[in-house]
Structure formats: structure tokens, C-alpha cells
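Team,

Forwarding the record for the chain on the shared tracking sheet. I've put the sequence and predicted structure together so nobody has to dig through attachments.
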Amino acid sequence: MNFDLVKCENLQQAIHIPNTTDDYQEETWFVKFGEEIVGVGLFPKGSENCILAIVGDGYDDKKVIGDIDIHDALIIEGLNIAFEGYLRSIRGDVAIGEKKVD
């Protein structure tokens, strides 16, 4: 898939990922583009509008969509952990390889 075509406004909530903290006003979801689950996204509580997402087929083929600079580093780390969960549970272990250091 060409992830350069994917924008936050094109992503829909697919499956809610349980929150690890109640301190923030956002929720993390697996996101889909059309009918395919393509990554994870951050949504304001009660909203269907994605504000930040990580999509891709693997560690070496991931793209961050949205304004990463306005989010706390803890939120970004949580989204990265959720993306790893996406790779393991949705893409399967074949997507897991050597982690690329950002």
C-alpha cells in the first residue's frame, strides 16, 4: 500500500485499544483506510476525527501522520507501543524484525 496517500482525515476507528492512563484526553484505536486496518491512531475522547497516526507494514515501513510536535513525548511513545501491538496482532509476527532506531 502507498501510505503517502493516507491522511488523518481518511482514517476511521476500527478497534479500540485499552487506554493505559486516564490522564489524557485522547484514545488510541487501530485505524482503517477503506476496509483495511493499516495502523494505530489517536482520537480526542468521544470524537471520530484522527489527530495523529502511525501507519505501515513494518518498523522499516512506517509513517507518522499528523502534527507530532504538539503531542507530549509520552503520547508518542504510547502510540509507538500501540503500533508494535498492531504489527504483532494485525500484521502478524512476520512484520516483526529488527527495530529501526528513530
